[in-house]
Design a protein that fits this description.
15 helices, mainly alpha, two-stranded antiparallel ribbon, globular
């Protein structure tokens, strides 16, 4: 039975970030900055309330009618209750013989084109630990992108305006960045486990390292770009944020309406149609919040029973990163053109170059992860390099000019010397095309 280390990490980030937010809020209160105090407390308490909501209603913390647990949830102590229960189960597992076990069947990763199905006995304690880990993973994603991401953006924006980074604020921003990166990492792992639920998945340390570096560069550069743009063009900040957010929020619904599928009824048997609509709206709300700052790794598909698109679409991934790179470049250009005196002692071209290189580094680590470190890369129908190459050829095909015309046309229009060149070009094309059977065998 695996040690529940992810539960400890999630709880530490949750408690540390909340405590740091309250401490920083007290400094804003002492300084008389009521607006910064209100926004700091809002972004600290909103994800806490959503985490409690997730634990209560989605993961059924109150299914046994425990009033003490309800009171602790109202006091925002639900994760502490779960953590205590997790370690109680972990340290008492194996001491008492379990009354029953369940049998799970998982397929191993293919070796030499063959995949074996292995049966595994899962005890009651291990099943409960799996449920708790899933609950903390989802809570980490909610905490990261509905609390930590806007909180980090806010605190960095305040630091730019005040031209000062205090010790309390720097600690708070570091915890927020770690929380976002960890939430993005858990989102990647959840996406892999949902897509390949039939397989026994083992994520290696190299994969964790690639995801951590990928998400760190991607999120850090995205937050800095948003802060720089909002510090010089405040009036345009809200339109940029709303277009991004509502674009990702309505995208799954547009695909659902275009598919003309019936309304999903099998999300939760106890939910009514109104309750199902609320759950789907909250899910798309979280999906939009994730895509505001980084690639979500999970594509919603509301007409699917699992609500997840399990196909590997490299085109959508490529389009997202191309458009995001263009958007970041445009926002940096606007900042460079309209920068104020507060950036007088900053080398603006160097900063722009560093941010663009940082985002390219994120894309590089993402490519390394999908090409070499993904635990299920053997199940891909095509590698990411092949998919991106096809996408690049598709985008460049309309712009590709014809290099040489037919030999007969060349002979009529050009001199004998150019006729020889045309024949050479024709021979080159013939050698590239070749015999179909020959090209097939060479590709094989």
């Amino acid at each position: 039975m695996k040690f529940p280390g992810s539960v400890l990490v999630s709880l530490f980030l949750f408690v540390a970030e909340t405590a740091a937010a309250l401490a920083l809020g007290s400094t804003y209160r002492a300084a008389g900055d009521r607006m910064w105090l209100a926004l700091t407390l809002l972004f600290a308490l909103l994800p806490c309330a959503l985490v409690q909501f997730s634990l209560v209603f989605v993961h059924r913390d109150l299914s046994r009618d425990r009033p003490l647990v309800l009171l602790l949830h109202l006091l925002q102590l639900g994760p502490l209750v779960r953590c205590v229960e997790v370690f109680y189960i972990y340290f008492h597992a194996g001491r008492v013989e379990e009354p029953y076990v369940s049998i799970t069947k998982k397929r191993q990763m293919p070796k030499d084109g063959h995949s074996e199905e292995v049966e595994k006995e899962v005890g009651q304690a291990e099943g409960k630990l799996f449920t708790h880990r899933s609950a903390f993973s989802r809570a980490s994603v909610i905490q990261a992108f509905l609390g930590s991401a806007p909180q980090l953006t806010l605190q960095l924006y305040i630091s730019v305006l005040q031209q000062e980074i205090t010790a309390a604020r720097s600690i708070f921003m570091t915890l927020s960045l770690l929380s976002i990166v960890y939430g993005a990492l858990r989102c990647n792992i959840l996406a892999i486990k949902i897509k390949y639920d039939d397989y026994d998945i083992n994520v290696k340390p190299a994969a964790y390292l690639c995801i951590f570096l990928w998400r760190s560069f991607e999120i850090a550069t995205r937050v800095v770009v948003l802060v720089l743009f909002s510090s010089v063009l405040q009036i345009w900040t809200l339109p940029v944020v709303l277009v991004n957010f509502f674009g990702f929020f309505f995208y799954p619904w547009i695909l659902f309406w275009k598919s003309k599928s019936p309304f999903p009824e099998n999300i939760e048997k106890a939910l009514t149609r109104v309750g199902t609509t609320i759950v789907l709206c909250l899910l798309t709300f979280l999906y939009a919040g994730i895509n505001m700052f980084c690639w979500s790794a999970v594509q919603l598909k509301l007409n699917d029973p699992d609500l997840i698109n399990k196909s590997q679409n490299w085109y959508r991934l490529a389009v997202y990163y191309v458009l995001r790179f263009i958007e970041n470049s445009f926002l940096l250009l606007m900042w460079y053109l309209y920068k104020t005196d507060i950036y007088l002692y900053i080398c603006a071209p160097l900063l722009v170059l560093q941010l663009l290189i940082g985002y390219c580094m994120a894309i590089l680590f993402m490519l390394v992860f999908y090409q070499f470190c993904h635990p299920c890369k053997k199940l891909f129908s095509s590698s990411i390099s092949e998919g991106l190459l096809r996408c690049f050829k598709l985008l460049c095909f309309p712009c590709k000019p014809s290099k040489c015309s037919t030999p007969t046309e060349k002979a009529e229009l050009k001199s004998p010397d150019s006729t020889d060149d045309a024949q050479n070009c024709y021979k080159t094309n013939e050698s590239q095309n070749g015999n179909p059977h020959q090209s097939v065998s060479s590709n094989a």
